[in-house]
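Internal tracking record. Fields below are filled automatically when a chain is submitted to the structure queue. Please do not edit lines marked as system-generated. If the sequence contains nonstandard residues, flag them in the REMARKS field before resubmitting.
Queue: standard
Priority: normal
Entity type: single polypeptide chain
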Amino acid sequence: MTDAPALETELAAHIAEHVAPLATPLPVPDAALPADRFADRELSWLAFNQRVLELAEDPDVPLLERVRFLAIFASNLDEFFMVRVAGLKRRIATGIAVTAASGLSPREVLDAISEKAHELMARHAAVFTEQVSPALAAEGITLVRWADLGESEQDRLTKYFRRQIFPVLTPLAVDPAHPFPYISGLSLNLAVSVVNPSSGKEHFARVKVPPLLPRYLAVDASGKPSVPDQQTAARDRGPISFVPIEDVIAQHLYYLFPGMEVQEFHTFRVTRNEDVEVEEDDAENLLKAMEKELLRRRFGPPVRLELAAGTSARVRTLLTRELRMFTEDVYELPAPLDATGLNVIADLDRAELHFPAFVPTTHRHLAEVESANPTDIFAAIRARDILLHHPYDSFSTSVQQFLEQAATDPQVLAIKQTLYRTSGDSPIVDALIDAAQAGKQVLALVEIKARFDEQNNIEWARKLEQAGVHVVYGIVGLKTHCKLSLVVRQEADGLRRYSHVGTGNYHPKTARLYTDVGLLTVDPDVGQDLTRLFNQLSGYAPRSRFHRLLVAPRSIRAGLVERIEREAAAARAGHEAWIKIKVNSMVDEAIIDALYRASQAGVQVDVNVRGICALRPGVPGLSETIRVRSILGRFLEHSRIFAFAHATPGDDGFTGPEVYIGSADLMHRNLDRRVEALVRMSAPEHIAELVRLIDDSVADTTSSWWLGSDGTWTRHHRDADGQPLADLQSVLIARQRRRPGAVR
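SYSTEM-GENERATED OUTPUT FOLLOWS
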């Protein structure tokens, strides 16, 4: 067994030799800029989730999509508490929390989060009960409580309870012989008080709502209950009602406590710290360390307690005491709790209550070879670079087909692939397995630390290894977040490397819901760059240099700042200068400060950010030429694009504008603690298309949210005459369908 001092020495040497060269020194804050120039990232995230809520409030959004946005809001907030609030509480408790870039102390941030979260959760509940629920009822879809059901419906549900629910339940008593039970994170529970009629003594018990049972029971016009996969049939029979399963359980508690009198019952829900921290002191045991940490995650400390409105003071006191919660951590809301379960209703097959049907099309340059033999996809890529825009361009007939054909093509010798998130039945993983079994050299870089996908990725890693795929987990201390595929093919004139660099995960299901861009190319410089980067990730190559890639943690921040400063210099010299950025989040202070300096020099800066934004636009003397917009809609905006009016001087003859796409958001974690990659676009038509995409997204005629200098977001979705502004995603769907050669 290796002793601890030797292991520490070995780890230090490894980091010094292989990790440290990848990093760049943290930037020094610009003291010449005002101290209050950054918005708080946590409060900015809550503002993003508020924008999601505003979509649920919008009567112009199809009704079942409003239900979906209510569920998304709740799911987003769950993760926010599990990760961000939990992390902040942990840092405060351990004494390592520092003042945020916004100038707020950790306690001030936590207090502000609590105040805003209470407001938003109450507003969320009101949207459902006062707006969405009545609108659903008008369409024959009702969410009812037990007391709203007729006698025959109650009788049917009682029979269903005895047959399908009762055998699964486990009541847990709390008394001197039974300590207060562990309450799992995000589980729905009933707090039950019962009285022994013989002794008159009162007892407390907890009943967990089994998570594998349907959250809502559908009851059709005949009164017959059904489970969710029968809801389409129920719809065909006429109006349908949904009963929360906890209501059915609550009305039959006497089955669980025979001989006792049920005094009261209340639903509650606990959110726990479920962030994962792994000590990567032994890379060979990273898989086992992650599995151990996932087990520990289940027992993280609670950070939020949700109680159904009307919970008695006695039960509230008992729960807060046993769970060691503070008053500000308790959220009392109208039942039913856990709005993530509303997805069951949102999934109803009522086409008139959803967004119009959308089917992705095959990219026109790939459609030309779609019906030919499989290797023609390589001919299409050899003919020209192909810029993909998902979900408008089909993922299955582009990226997925590229990898599936590479797996079966006898001329393909090797495939190298990063996997950050993928689906449970991934055709990408299947293709890699097929390729390995066919004798090809296959490398899969699986990021097993992808948050909340860790267990899934561990399972895929083992499945890939068993099939003969070379599986690696990247560099110690860094998450591998880049989206890369490399195919090496033997052709008549020698080996040729085909590359895909994207902004989204290799996940066929989310590729239908997320907007992402990607490049398919046979350019030798990109192929060489990907070869070097994969060698860096799987072996020892910390000093690699790249032609068309910017790679974090070494060169993305420095490269972007350099290009921002180049635009500032051009503006000061009297030339046209602009910067256009589309990202999910913008938090990095060095990037923001560089944009402030560029604005002071007169550069026009347009930013389209989906989520967090710590930059304050429109501040006199600081950011007057910066405007920030946000677009939310039927698809989740996920692409990252960076465009600059002027190109970096080089010896490859490339001229501006200079545009990059890739995996990195402008956050510390992306630029300092992840392996990210941006690729420079070279085809003029692709550059123009990406610039146009950002221009359209920030145009005053496009429906969006505008960020003000005070950090508040205002929705602009109607013109001065009250007419709807253009919905960018609908415009892109229509534009895609009009393209020559588009094939569904």
